[in-house]
Amino acid sequence: MSRREWAPLVGFSVLVVLWAHYFREFIGWEAALVGLGAFHGLALIHIKLRVNPLFASIQVLVLPWLVRALLLGGLWVLAPEQAAPSDILLPLYDRYLLLMYPAVALHWALTGISARYPRFTPWRSLVHLALLALVFGLPDFELTEGSLALPFTLAISGGLLLWELEQLRRDNLRLGWGLPPIWFLGLLPLILSGASLAYIAYSENKAGEQAGLLQPTLFGYDFTPLVRLENQISMSDNLIFVLKKDGPPESYLLRRQVLNAYDATRGFYAEPRWLTATETALNFTSGGLILPEVSSRLRESLVYDILAVNLEPASILAVNEPKSVERLMGYDPRRFRGAYRVLSRALPPKLARVARNPAEAGVSQEYWDFHTAVPPDPKLRDLALQLTRDIIDPTKKVERLERFFHEEFYYSLKPATPPNTDPLRHFLFESRRGYCSYFAFSMVLLLRHLNIPSRLAVGFFTDPQRQVLGYYPVRGFQAHAWVEVLSAGEGWMSYDPTTDRLAPGEDISFGAEQGDEFFDLIESLLAQELQPVGEPKEVLSQQPPAATEPWLLWGALLLAVLALTLYKLRFRIPILLCRDPRRKLVLSYRLFRRQIEAGLDGDYRDLSAMELAQRVGDTTFSQITDIYLEARFSDHPRDRFNGIDLAALERRLQKVNLFPRFWRWFWY
Predict the structure, then answer these.
(1) Are strands 538-539 and 288-290 parallel, antiparallel or unpaired?
(2) Parent domain of 141
(3) How many domains does the chain fold into?
């Protein structure tokens, strides 16, 4: 099987993978891989048997329908009562076929033309490159679902670009090596892929050192995994996302993540061991999520849509406990980065009461002890006891602390903590001014000194006064931190200690004007209808979803590098292992010949050793050819070939520029 026959299949495979990503709303990866495998199997059989391309294309198009008929027939005969589910499966299968037909027809048409008219062979590579460019030009093609989607897509695209440029060169298009910018086009995606991978690794390694609330990411904004108290913060008016919720205007707390562990030097962070699947920083990369049901008598169902503008599109925000999340389609991709619908089991404010003990809360003693653990601080303990000295009911204690912060503190973006001063103590006992993190930190620590389980939650709040036709604009300054307290049998309930009293002398404008951008977005949404994509949802267990193990990525990369290394050394390894000097010369000639052929235009595999030497016209290669012929066909003893320096001959060949240059060195 020649290169001209199997090389287009490689490019076609990569394009199918990229297009499957684009059409992920219609087909799954499983269907794409099965279809690709079936097509390639038929293609290889047809090439081997020299089947007419027109007949082969018809056969490829008809075969899936025959398979469908067999599947339906077997389903109706063996399990007629199970025929109903096929009504759901078949439309997706049919859409997959309709999407594959143009690609298959185009591939076989180009194959047939190039088989009859070899001068048109380069057009297959040009068409592949055009389809690659078209993929990235499509408005709905997103590389934001999952942090690894971008580097892998860029790597695949860069590999395909280099591959097709190599085929063009080999198919006598004579691009040559005089156009470095063209070859750099293939290397640029690979460079960007490596840079994005390095950025992701750097972000993960620095996660423990980051603080604050919002931070910029590759595709928008998201929350940091660590929150500590800063001396000064700034507010952003950037529109982060739009919340769509029917009904009267209300204020909602949309939680992004829970921070349940505290360290005096670091701040609040998440300890996954004590978090359930609904309490972690949720992300999804497919149709959506189905989360475990929260046992509750008081929680109500709440349905709302979130449309990301500058938010990391895979980041899920939810009111209280999310039950399901599904990705939406139908939005304008030029205006929104993504959209999803959330069904939450929301606990109305102050409806439940605070738990008195682990049994009442329905948790273990170990769980209770973890959420009441706090570095001992006599001054904080005395303040907590003083504020609640006449109160026995823990619910009243929590409400008393919340009211204490509302009535006696001020909101300020510049707490102005003096150097070498504990910012929390300065806030509580001296300045009494700070932003939301100061209030939430203080309340959680005071509650834990009272043996009341509490933790920090971060996300966004909505302003009901800015709601327009059920749409809430959420901007950067609405990033927020609040407190969650363990209730009696109803899970965690929210308390917001942050006051609305501005510190004297401060004038903070919280986006007084909506701006034209928000109204333009509403206008585009009113003209469209958001619908679920209909993809299967991932079902999560009660335990928090496992994070993507970095060793899987690096293991895959290591295997790829190992495979490429072995491929490059496929000629040198036998030479190194060979002990017979005569045989070693024969193997070395095979390596030199492949390198020489790679630097020439055309296919010279059918030429004899002498014919190739005459075609090359180089004295060094002619000398190597003579040595090879003597080693292979003469009756000289093996000792005659011991003194030949193969490394010196290879260096001489490289000096005359007969070997392939630049990146093509890696192929041989």
Answers:
(1) parallel
(2) 3-205
(3) 3
